[in-house]
């Protein structure tokens, strides 16, 4: 069956609509854990949870184990929950998987089976997805991650200024696990009033205006000197690499090419913004704020004729190849060359 968007499925859980078999996959483990917590709260009595909850790793199960887990009756309750993690460990012909697939053809009404796939293999298993409620737990776009952060901060009693929340999301690339970890650090602070972006920057070692997204913006608006100066500090940050920066820039260049194509066809103002926004919602790229990206690409489209986009894309591809194949030049040197080539392309086109 088609994968169900996370929001749609979670709203159903809040209405106590819990299917008998659920398959969670995607890159965002935090969302999978939120689904599991909601299922447990909706299905199991807290006082009887230990009797009616079983958790196993797929690698440790044989066919008999699968059958026993799935067909055991609940104790003093209407339903029980079985959680099988790391289902990507099952090969296509694994006997335990075969037993699970047979069970999923006609799951028991008394058991809720939750199959959880790890983030290392984000592509869903077609056989499991066909037989269970398949839920995509993919990274949230930045504006959604910010809402998630503000909800969690309120639960922990941490008050963040709007700029501080935005800075946290940008620094962590909207990764919920990293956001939760940083929020845990902030919860230990004693502060009077909301926590500022400057305070967050002091704690994380990444100040406002020094993130990978600020670097990308400097490249796109034609500030190569500023972009190059940011690189040493930027590459020293956890989770940031030359390859990740090139990928971030490449995504924006493709988006700019799209916006420029509509611009060259005569789209202007709201029509241009609407065309780019529609294209984003059709493609649904991960970890991207569609509204923010559409506005940025539409605003910059007049400055990025097709020839400039093509030249910048070629330079970005060459930098990506150098980063992955050579050890002679450091990441900062390769990226500085890229920044200067993109800036030179702008002057040549002009």
Could you give a quick summary of the protein structure above?
The protein is α/β, with parallel strands linked by helices and 350 residues long. The protein has 16 helices and 6 strands. Strands 1-6-2-5-4-3 form a 6-stranded parallel sheet, with helices on both faces.
Task: Kindly list the characteristics that best describe this protein.
Rossmann fold; Zinc Finger, Delta Prime, domain 3; Helicase, Ruva Protein, domain 3; single chain; 350 residues; 16 helices; six-stranded parallel beta sheet; 3 domains
Structural account:
The protein is α/β, with parallel strands linked by helices. It has helices spanning 6-14, 29-43, 63-71, 95-105, 126-131, 142-156, 162-171, 176-187, 197-204, 212-220, 224-235, 242-264, 269-283, 290-300, 306-325, 331-349, and strands at residues 4-5, 21-25, 53-57, 80-85, 111-116, 133-136. A six-stranded parallel β-sheet has the order 1-6-2-5-4-3, sandwiched between helices. α3 packs parallel to α4 (95-105), α12 (242-264) runs antiparallel to α15 (306-325) and α15 packs antiparallel against α16 (331-349). The radius of gyration is 24 Å and the shape is elongated. The N and C termini lie far apart (52 Å).
């Amino acid at each position: 069956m088609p994968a169900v968007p996370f929001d749609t499925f979670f709203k159903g859980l809040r209405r106590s609509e819990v299917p008998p078999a659920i398959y969670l996959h995607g890159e965002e483990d935090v969302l999978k854990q939120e689904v599991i917590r909601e299922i447990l709260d909706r299905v199991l009595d807290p006082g009887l949870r230990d009797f009616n909850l079983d958790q196993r790793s797929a690698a440790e199960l044989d066919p008999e184990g699968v059958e026993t887990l799935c067909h055991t009756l609940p104790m003093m309750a209407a339903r029980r929950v079985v959680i099988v993690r790391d289902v990507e460990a099952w090969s296509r012909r694994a006997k335990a998987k075969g037993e699970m697939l047979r069970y999923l053809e006609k799951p028991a009404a008394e058991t809720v089976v939750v199959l959880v796939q790890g983030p290392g293999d984000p592509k869903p298993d077609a056989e499991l997805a066909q037989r269970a409620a398949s839920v995509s737990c993919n990274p949230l776009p930045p504006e959604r991650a910010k809402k998630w952060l503000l909800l969690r901060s309120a639960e922990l009693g941490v008050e963040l200024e709007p700029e501080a929340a935005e800075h946290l999301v940008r620094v962590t690339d909207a990764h919920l696990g990293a956001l939760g970890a940083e929020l845990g650090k902030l919860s230990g602070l004693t502060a009077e009033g909301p926590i500022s972006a400057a305070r967050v920057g002091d704690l994380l070692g990444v100040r406002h205006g020094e993130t990978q997204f600020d670097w990308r913006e400097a490249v796109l608006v034609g500030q190569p000197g500023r972009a190059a100066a940011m690189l040493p500090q930027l590459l020293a940050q956890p989770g940031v690499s030359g390859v990740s920066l090139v990928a971030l820039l490449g995504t924006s260049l493709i988006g700019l090419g799209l916006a420029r194509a509509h611009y060259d066809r005569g789209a202007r103002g709201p029509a241009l913004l609407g065309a780019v926004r529609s294209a984003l919602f059709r493609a649904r790229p991960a970890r991207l704020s569609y509204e923010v990206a559409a506005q940025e690409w539409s605003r910059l489209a007049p400055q990025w004729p097709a020839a400039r986009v093509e030249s910048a894309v070629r330079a970005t591809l060459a930098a990506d190849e150098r980063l992955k194949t050579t050890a002679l030049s450091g990441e900062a040197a390769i990226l500085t060359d890229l920044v200067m080539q993109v800036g030179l392309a702008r002057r040549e086109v002009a």
